[in-house]
Design a protein that fits this description.
This protein is an alpha+beta fold. It is built from three helices and five strands, in the order E-E-H-E-H-E-E-H. The structure holds FE2/S2 (inorganic) cluster.
Amino acid sequence: MSDPNSTGGRGHGGLPTRKYRITFLPANLTCEVDPAKLPYGRHGRMGSILEISAALAGRGLEIEHSCGGVCACATCHVIVREGLDSCSSPEDDELDQLDEAPGHEMNSRLACQCIPDGTRDIVVEIPAWNRNATKESES
Ligand code: FES
């Protein structure tokens, strides 16, 4: 069971008000997020990591999101390696889904629910099992 005190986020929970950068590992692809250009994609909460990742789809980045970004599948599980303190706090539904996510860690979040507030740059790792799913869906 997830510990709500250790799975993260103390950001203000709102959309960013200034530009910041997200780097996705292990591909090491970086996107500058401009609040004036949101939304970048159609899936997930506005300003979420999943929604922003759409900006890098043309460079081969894709985060699995079987439920379409409505917090009902946990396939969009990512690990926030840097900047978790600038992200929205997880709600109970997200914590319930993370309990079911394979390989979840203290800094695990659902990309479709996690909204960075833009007060610092963040680094996000896509877990190996998710990368494998992406690779298979492309073949
Ligand atoms: S896409 Fe299903 S929980 Fe995020």
